[in-house]
Each structure stands twice: as structure tokens, then as C-alpha cells.
């Protein structure tokens, strides 16, 4: 084998240092280009994620957030003008009640008379404010003489109650004279603990309450706003 042919074979098998360096240099821009091109996509992805979070947050506030409304903090009689001291702001779930007065509308109701007796903890609604006729159409006020122990001890004007009459026969369930009534007045108790209570109820229920025998009815306190 000649020396010339051996050198030719070696040169073909081993790449020169110059060609290797050229290949490395030419490959570097391609890698850098791929990285630069990837950055805008990563940035765009981050913007989309942040945007989605903002949209979801806004949707939560509008759909599932809380709504600031006005709530009564002390009893208010019919016709009594509402003051800022009678009200406080409470956050409730939207759609809990119809016609609620928002905290932003406080100036519209302060100074207005209560259309019905208001009780502590009651959410203020538009129907409870204004100089409407009392009793409202379709309603009437009836009085009942109650014995001690037949009414809640902390009964006040504005309380929401159910008026119950005794069973007609032994073993029968008690009869409901008024399923829903609002106390408008409570007299001072006698020495025996008896009181006279006035309630606002629909006309038929008011007749049933007013015609009941003295000392036979009982009051059941219902949740505020029920």
C-alpha cells in the first residue's frame, strides 16, 4: 500500500477542525432562533391565563358574590321616619329577597316612614318603606288577649308570628288562625302576665283571630323575613 493512498483515506475519515467549527457556528443561530420564537408563545400563554383569571373573578363578583343591603337594627313603628341609626349594612347573597334596598340607596329611604312595623334583623325592602295606607289593601288588624306562657317572652312590634288556636277535639292537631301575621302592638303585661297583642294579617285570618275566645290563642315566633 502506497503512502499516498493512506493519507487520502485518513483525510476522508477524520473531519478537519475548520469544518467542525463551521458546523457549530452555523447550528448556533438556528437554536437561538427557535428559542426567540418560543418566547412570544410563552408570553401569550401567560397573558391568556391572567386574562382568564380576571374574567372568572369578575364573573364571581357578578354571579356568586355578596350584595350590600340595609338591615334594621332596632324596632320601628308604623309611620315612624327611618333614620340612619335604625339601619346597618349587611352583605347577603344576591336573589335572597325581592326588592331589597341596597346600601347605595340609603339616602332614598332615610327620612321616609315605615309602611309596616319593622323588627331588628329585618332586611329592608321597598315595600316596607313609604306612606302607604295602613292597613294595606286586603289586610286587617286584629287583637288577641293572651295568657302568660302563650306568647314568646321577647315579643315586640314587628315580630313575625303564627297565631294558633286550640284543637277542636281532644287528640286533634291545633288549628292555625293566621299562618303569617305581623305584630303591630304589644300592651304592658298585667300582674298575671297577660297581654293584649295586635296583629296585621290578611282579612280572613284577622277575622279568625278577632273572633277567638279571649285567652285561647297562642303565638309562635317565626324567623325574621320568613
3D architecture notes:
The protein is an alpha+beta fold. The protein folds into 3 domains: 3-63; 67-128, Type Iii Antifreeze Protein Isoform Hplc 12 (Alpha-Beta Complex); 139-221, no CATH class. It is built from 4 helices and 7 strands. It is elongated. The chain starts with a helix and ends in a 5-residue tail after the last strand. Mean pLDDT is 77; it is low at 1-33 and 35-63.
Strand content: 15-25%
Distance between termini? 112 Å
Strand order of the largest sheet: 3-6-5-4-7
- In quaternary terms, these chains amount to single chain
The number of helical runs is 4
Extract low-pLDDT stretches: 1-33, 35-63
> How many extended strands?
7
The value of Rg in angstroms is 40 Å
Q: Label the overall shape.
A: elongated
State the secondary-structure class.
Answer: alpha+beta
The H/E string reads HHEEHEEEEHE
Number of domains: 3
Helix content range of the residues, please? 25-40%
Looking at this protein, list some descriptive labels.
226 residues; alpha+beta; Type Iii Antifreeze Protein Isoform Hplc 12; 3 domains; five-stranded antiparallel sheet; two-stranded antiparallel ribbon; 31% helix; elongated; disordered N terminus
